[in-house]
Design brief:
Layout lengths: L1 E4 L10 H10 L14 H4 L28 E13 L5 E13 L7 E10 L4 E10 L14 E5 L2 E6 L2 E8 L2 E9 L4 E2 L5 E3 L5 E18 L2 E16 L8 E9 L4 E8 L5 E9 L5 E3 L5 E5 L2 E3 L6 E3 L2 E5 L6 E7 L5 E4 L5 E14 L2 E11 L6
Antiparallel strand pairs: 1-6, 2-3, 2-13, 3-4, 4-5, 6-7, 7-8, 8-9, 9-12, 10-12, 11-12, 12-13, 14-15, 14-25, 15-16, 16-17, 18-21, 19-20, 21-22, 22-24, 23-24, 24-25
Length: 378
């Protein structure tokens, strides 16, 4: 059962011993086996997006951190962690934790959740998925205190003004993280509102640089971890068009700047929308023209599970005179594919990447995440 509530005075915590007990309790389960749960499209009727008769209200934070009553919504965290093993080795991980909310007609909302770990020391990728139907009416998005608290099974996320907490677990891995925003929130497209034409509209903001600390259990070994994360919150009356997909990039550079890029493709593979946003070290967001962005694919990877061929490795060139960046992205692991037919009805590649290149004539490096959808057939 999912529990959704607005931020209260008491913050729930999860002690390391409880985390370990939860991991051991799940050790006999498959990381992605949730039989009997149909895909969203099979359970709920599709409701077409309708034009807005009145201007859409602006984003208000922290109130709009909470769930809304639109067709589609998600809270998305990706990041990079590091820790010292007991033998002194440096261990590195990527992580993803996302909660989806889907509403159709007068039916109760459906929630899906994905949790993934890229274990770079072992060269392994692991993921888990959950899907639940809310049985009670959801809370209203309006709240005097604002913020959000969500729970799907033993997985939890909560946040308020850039101070967030995450708890998630799967066989062999569990994490409990505290996150603190190091920059102001970024409202994409200037006001946080993006229109998709016939596909609808979306509110969209990000916290592009979150300091992370906490605990990670790796095969029963408790590790103190630190690192950087990125958070996206997107909601609105929009639907994914059949056969379409996108390539999405969140890039954190070591000069304290970030880039968010995406390309949306139609069913024929043609790019129909391009977005390029640059966040400077002071936290100012600059929207770049699509003509300034060039993304060259360097290779490909063939999934042994879905037989989808994904792009793998990219060279990103930004010709804006004030930015003038050329960056090379390489996946930390080739296989970072989530096959989530039992929760969201699709498969996609979402993984940690390393970054090397130049910006404004100076060498830069960094870490990022790339999401690739629409390459695997359902």
């Amino acid at each position: 059962m999912i529990r959704i509530w607005h931020r209260a005075g008491r913050r729930p915590g999860l002690f390391p011993s409880l985390l370990l007990a939860l991991v051991l309790g799940l050790s006999g389960l498959s990381a992605c086996a949730f039989p009997g749960i149909p895909a969203t499209s099979a359970q709920l009727p599709v409701v077409p997006a309708t034009a807005q008769a009145t201007p859409l209200p602006p984003i208000h934070l922290p109130q709009d951190e909470a769930p809304h009553e639109d067709l589609t919504e998600w809270w998305y965290y990706t990041g990079h962690l590091q820790a010292r093993a007991s033998d002194g080795r440096l261990l590195r991980y990527g992580f993803e934790l996302v909660f989806f909310q889907v509403r159709r007609s007068d039916l109760p909302p459906v929630y899906a959740a994905h949790f993934a770990i890229s274990d770079l020391a072992r060269g392994q990728f692991h993921f888990a998925q959950q899907r639940v139907l809310q049985l009670e009416p959801a809370s209203s998005a309006a709240s005097s205190g604002g913020g959000f608290q969500l729970q799907v099974g033993p997985w939890r996320m909560q946040g308020h003004n850039g101070k967030d907490q995450l708890v998630a677990l799967m066989p062999d891995y569990a994490l409990q993280l505290q996150l603190q925003a190091l920059k102001p929130v970024v409202l994409h497209n200037g006001d946080g509102l993006i229109t998709y034409g016939l596909a609808g509209f979306s509110y969209y903001y990000s916290r592009t640089r979150l300091a992370v600390g906490g605990l990670l259990l790796d095969h029963g070994q408790q590790l103190a971890v630190s690192g950087l994360a990125w958070m996206d919150h997107q909601w609105g009356n929009f639907l994914t068009l059949a056969g379409s997909g996108w390539d999405w990039f969140s890039l954190q550079l070591n000069d304290n700047s970030e880039l968010m890029l995406y390309l949306i493709r139609d069913a024929s593979g043609k790019v129909i929308s391009t977005y390029a946003g640059f966040i400077d070290p002071a936290g100012q967001n600059q929207l770049l023209p699509a003509s300034a962005l060039r993304i060259q694919v360097l290779g490909s990877w063939l999934s042994p599970v879905t037989h989808a061929r994904y792009p793998s490795g990219w060279r990103i060139t930004i010709s804006d005179p004030h930015l003038a960046a050329q960056l090379t992205l390489q996946p930390e692991l080739k296989d970072q594919e989530l096959v989530t037919y039992q929760s969201t009805g699709n498969a996609y590649w979402e993984g940690a990447v390393s970054i090397q290149g130049q910006r404004a004539g100076r060498p830069v490096s960094g870490e990022g995440y790339v999401e690739l959808t629409g390459y695997a057939a359902a």
